[in-house]
Amino acid sequence: MIQTYEAAVDWIQSRLKFGIKPGLERMQWLMAKLNHPERRMKTIHVAGTNGKGSTVCYLRNILQQAGFTVGTFTSPYIEQFNERISINGIPVGDTELVLLVNRIRPLTEELEQTELGSPTEFEVITAMSLYYFADVHPVDFVIYEVGLGGRLDSTNVITPLISLITNIGHDHMKILGNTIAEIACEKAGIIKAGIPVITTAMQKEAVDVIKNKATVKQAPLYRIGDDFSVANHQPLANGEMFTLINQQQNIENLLISMNGQHQVYNAALAVMGALQLESRYQIPIGQEAIREGLKNSKWIGRFEQLIEKPRVIIDGAHNPEGIDSLIETMKTHLQGKKIRMVFSALGDKDLQHMIPKLDQVADSIVFTTFDFPRAIPAKALYNRSGHPHKSFSENWQAVLKQTMADINEDEVLVITGSLYFISQVRKWVFHTYA
């Protein structure tokens, strides 16, 4: 019996040694042992390459504003482990986490003795969340963010009310495939028979795959550019404003506090999800809840300003499409500023396409590393860069201290790369400069 929060987290993270094992057999075994919690809750499923967390945040806040209690399952965490399982944005308590581990641990040990083998960390956490939201703290809705892919992701044991698919890009290619079509096929694996699917994917290869899967599953499909669109987009000092147009109505002057055109698309996807819940399932939401929900949504680690003077921004741009979104947002919101950049990444990322993009927009760039199993050495990142003003250091704290001491008023420090890196940086900055 595990007694403490620290021991519970240590046990969960000890499952990391089992790596990534795509497949639903172990989850289905766990669900049967838990009396199928996945069948006893109302869920919404969110897949895609980038923007999943922001989309979850927007929709969660919309539903909260409409008076509902909303559970969320997201990854990775930025501030604390518990936030992966939250209710109305409040992470599960330490005592509850211990309770969940003590419920799942014996089943994990039993499963290890079967031909299915050991469940992974993500499978264990997914099972914990399903048990929690069904049996410990039931809620009105639970929004599940896919961990990796979709088709074989552990969250895919649910049958949701609606499925949302954000953009499709190049990430986790060793597992999901080398082409947009192959990756889209994995993401589209969350589409269920007869369940509406809404997507902001735009590449023809991705859209064709999603269309075909929706047709096969007889799932109503709503996609950006066809069934809904964004108009009158205006960048603001602290966010964006836009109009959502669909076949039934125009919702004008929607405000979000997160920066970037990609956030407009994430918000539009969440709004379409809310409208679909309203029209298909007669769930009372209303336009006021949509407006307030969007306006109140914040997602840490996404173009987030940590310090005003000197200006320090973090952004978890961990794949080529994430880098593209970061660059577009910098061009809009950091016009006329010199960019000092610090970058770190995991070794399984598409660095050959990511680093040249950063080289083009940064005035100077420092490559570094951090304490994480798959983090790539700073020198290896440095060697991939052709920037004339590049450097590297294995000590990211020293880099940030020096840069923040030297930075001028016309400069901005942008720290980007792995979300795991961003998580460590964020904690350190607030602790050091609070």
Note the topology.
Elements: H1 5-14, H2 25-33, E1 43-47, H3 52-65, E2 70-73, E3 85-87, E4 90-91, H4 94-112, H5 121-136, E5 141-145, E6 162-165, H6 173-176, H7 180-187, E7 197-199, H8 204-216, E8 221-223, E9 228-236, E10 239-246, E11 250-256, H9 261-281, H10 287-295, E12 304-307, E13 312-315, H11 320-333, E14 338-344, H12 351-361, E15 364-368, H13 378-383, E16 390-393, H14 396-406, E17 411-417, H15 419-433
Parallel strand pairs: 1-5, 1-6, 2-5, 6-7, 7-8, 13-17, 14-15, 14-17, 15-16
Antiparallel strand pairs: 2-3, 3-4, 9-10, 10-11, 12-13
Can you offer a commentary on this structure?
By secondary structure, the chain is of the alpha/beta class. The protein folds into two domains: 5-295, Mur-like, catalytic domain (UDP-N-acetylmuramoyl-L-alanine:D-glutamate ligase, 3-Layer(aba) Sandwich); 304-433, Mur ligase, C-terminal domain (Protein-Tyrosine Phosphatase, Chain A, Alpha-Beta Complex), CATH 3.90.190.20. 41% of the residues lie in helices and 19% in strands. It is built from 15 helices and 17 strands. The protein has helices at 5-14, 25-33, 52-65, 94-112, 121-136, 173-176, 180-187, 204-216, 261-281, 287-295, 320-333, 351-361, 378-383, 396-406, 419-433, and strands spanning 43-47, 70-73, 85-87, 90-91, 141-145, 162-165, 197-199, 221-223, 228-236, 239-246, 250-256, 304-307, 312-315, 338-344, 364-368, 390-393, 411-417. The chain has an eight-stranded mixed sheet with strand order 4-3-2-5-1-6-7-8, sandwiched between helices. A six-stranded mixed sheet has the order 12-13-17-14-15-16, with helices on both faces. α3 packs across α9 (261-281), α4 packs across α5 (121-136) and α11 runs parallel beside α12 (351-361). The model has no long low-confidence stretch (mean pLDDT 94).
